[in-house]
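Audit log entry. Action: structure prediction of a protein-small molecule complex. Ligand: zinc ion. The ligand was supplied as SMILES and no pocket hint was given, so placement is left entirely to the predictor. Protonation state taken as written. Sequence taken verbatim from the request; no trimming, no tag removal. Recorded inputs:
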Amino acid sequence: MVMRFIGLLIAAAVAVWVYMDAKSKGYKTISAVGWMLGAFLLMIVFLPLYLFTRPKQSQVEILTPCKYCGRHYEGSPAYCPNCGHKVEGYSFNGE
Ligand SMILES: [Zn+2]
């Protein structure tokens, strides 16, 4: 009886955490509630699923300055989106 209560308490705590976390990650309220209910009813399924699908916290775009035009671009494209110069990978082997 007590164990059942504690289990319920943990499920509720996890569900609330999922809801708060989903909201802070920019999920819509309806999605956050969905994840919360899922985590509460089927924690073993929805908690790993949620942790797997939610956006990573370190989703900061890495900006690299173009060595031709000086503008910053995201990620590592083959060509600068601004000036069109080939910028793929800075070569450490010299010219
Ligand atoms: Zn450029």
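Audit: result stored. Helices lie at 2-24, 29-41, 43-53. Residues 60-90 form one domain.
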